[in-house]
Amino acid sequence: MPLLLVATVAVAVDGPSAGYVGLRVADVIDAFRDADHPFVYSTSLVGEELVVETEPEPGTPQFLVTQILRPHGLMLRTEAGVYLVVRIPRNALPASDENPLNDESSSAVPAMEMVVVSASRYEISRDITTSNFGLDRVTIQNMPDIGEDPIRVAQRLPGTAASGASAKTHFRGGDEGEVGIMLNGQWLFDPFHVRDYQNIFSVVDARAIQGVEVYTGGFPVRYGDRMSGLILMDSQAFAEPRHTEIGLSVFNTSFLSAGSKERHSWVVSARRGNLDLVIDSKFGEPNYYDIFVEYAFEFSPDTRLSINALYADDKINLILETQPDERDQITSDTRNAQFWLRLDSRWSPSLASTTIFSAVDYSNRRRGDANDIEKMVATVADDRYISQFGFRQDWVWSPSEKSLTQWGIQATAGTADYSYVGDAEYFGLEALYQGQPKTISRSVTAQPKGGSYAVYVSNRWRLANKTVLEWGLRWDDQTYTDLSSDAQLSPRLNVLFRPWENTELRLSAGRYFQSQPIQSLQVEDGIDHFWRAQRADHLIAGIKHLTDNDTSLRLEIFYKDIAHVRPRFENLFNPLGSMPELQADRTRLDPSSARSRGLELSAVRSAGPLDWWASYTWSEVTDNIDGMDVPRSWDQRHSVQGGFGWQSEKWNFSAAASVHTGWPTTNLELVEEGTDINGEPILVAIPGPRNAQKHGIFASVDARLSRKFKMQRGSLLVFLEVTNVLNRSNECCLDWDFNEDPASSDVLERGVDLWMPLLPAIGVLWQF
């Protein structure tokens, strides 16, 4: 029988075969394993009683195994370089015969985290760190978020803070720039559209990826130079010879072509933003598009080469004030080209490596002008050019069922060219800010060049049947900062303990550094040098339990101590200006340290056509400035997230809600400081204690309804999506001005600007 199975496997890879029906599923998978295909399963899932019920269609080993697993409620998931057999979520319908690896009929909001059911022999290969979440492709597409953005979906997770206007997210009190984003093993370089005004969308098409894996803290040692979190993505694998999707919505027009044939596979995604077609031209013309291409070739079952390219282009013209006497606009021209080669090699059943060569060519040209003679007259010219070349190699060695060792090296060489000129003259209230000069003229140029280097090693060891321990050590250094000794050493420790079958206890402790990237020199604020790397010490403890009714409960407590905090610049009242660095409310913060601590409680359940998820987070995020703990501008003590999805064969409805305490803000008052030569009082605008007040509670309910129609060729999906369904007025910013009402005793007028209003969007998607 083993010889017959091996022969059947050999024929199955090359062409049609028969004879699978009646064989044990485990024997078929084992035969593929003997042929060095990396399948892994648990005997509790794939028992001796499971047999192949129907003859599979010929194709790749993954395609064949997927077909024979499906009748038993099982599926494959790619994880850590292997194909892992897991249960199909209860909320997922059987995949279609035409596309068993790309099921689009799943419910609206699948589980917000991946619960891996695996054999003890594979548990050593599992990621045992804390604060890890997974969201699949269907979840992202059906979640009611602006533009089906895979980066925005991370804002639904516990421990995150976001405005909703930007695709960027704060993880557990960290700055937005402390989150690394990776696609197919490559760190993405500034992957956002409209980057000079709120980074509204990411450049990654949700339809081109399998899903996202998110770390909100405590991530493995193989990932470095990031201090708060990670968003990891891999491109989608399509089993059909050809799969095509054409989409049209308020936000973009999209085209996707993908497929596989024998040893070849490819994904091509192209999107064009439609905002310039739907907004009034008097508010500007935001034009942008992106293209992603991956072509992969398997030289053998053990060697795979993929060629990846990502290109994004923005030509943005935004007009924030349309009146001629208050004109305020910004234009931005950005080109972002990224290219990388990835080689995956399996040298033996226990040794594998991944090698990546990459190149980045980036340019950004920003022009802005404001012409309000009652507030500010200003111009800005900001040009940036960056070029980078990188190499990365990661190794995994698992000599036994009890041990797994990882190590790797990384190197990046880059050059940058900065040229910044900004001028501003202030009038009215803006000219009265304490210490504010009447005019500012700023000119900064810089041409840094150099490299970043890293080496790491980690070992995961099974101490006992219920305990797995992992230690890791990482070394990083940068040469473009002109700092003589700023190398960083990062030790980390993770422990997984399973006291009962459905309960896991996890502990993570480690040090995380983040250097200032070569592309992030703060020239707009007059800084022409780099700061030393920031440091964060994470301590996280968590428990996760799967109940008898398949509800996943999770509790995590985290503490983050931050040192070497980089000086940063913020606007006290209004961060939404076209040239925030020239606004009169711009202030420099020099914390000596910072701290983040909190508790997260979440629950997820999938039950037939209805599934739901909910989370609560308590947190406190502060900077220590001049010996005082001051809340960070995105501190939100209480946060509640939740949502549900319902689906039938044709209909799909999902809704999600987000509620959190208002972000901190600062008061302003006018103080008389003597009189002028005419006896008139001299007024000075003095901000109150920083972030001592709070905006009102933020609350938003978002919903999405879709209907699928069977077509003669493929299917047509029609959807309606509404952001902020209740049109709640969520406070964003303060707008101070002189009160012109002579009957009022108040000299200052306090206005409030708002975050996103009710925003409907419709779209269609044709899949064939």
Explain the layout of strands and helices.
Blueprint: H1 2-14, H2 25-34, E1 39-40, H3 61-69, E2 74-79, E3 82-87, H4 120-123, E4 132-136, H5 137-142, E5 160-161, E6 170-171, E7 179-183, E8 186-187, E9 192-193, E10 201-202, E11 209-215, E12 229-235, E13 243-249, E14 252-261, E15 264-273, H6 275-278, E16 284-300, E17 303-321, E18 326-348, E19 351-372, E20 376-400, E21 403-426, E22 439-446, E23 449-464, E24 467-478, E25 488-500, E26 503-514, E27 534-546, E28 551-563, E29 568-571, E30 586-589, E31 593-607, E32 610-625, E33 628-631, E34 638-647, E35 651-660, E36 664-665, E37 668-675, E38 681-687, E39 693-694, E40 698-710, E41 715-723, E42 731-738, E43 748-754, E44 759-767
Parallel strand pairs: 1-3, 7-12
Antiparallel strand pairs: 2-3, 4-11, 5-6, 7-8, 9-10, 11-12, 13-14, 13-44, 14-15, 15-16, 16-17, 17-18, 18-19, 19-20, 20-21, 21-22, 21-23, 23-24, 24-25, 25-26, 26-27, 27-28, 28-31, 29-30, 31-32, 32-33, 32-34, 34-35, 35-40, 36-39, 37-38, 40-41, 41-44, 42-43
What does this entry show, briefly?
The chain has 768 residues and is mostly beta strands. It is 6% helix and 55% strand. The chain is built from six helices and 44 strands.
**Separation of the first and last Cα atoms:** 40 Å
**Low-pLDDT stretches:** 1-18, 90-121
Please indicate the percent range of residues in DSSP E strands (runs of 2 or more). over 45%
What's the structural domain tally? 2
Shape call: globular
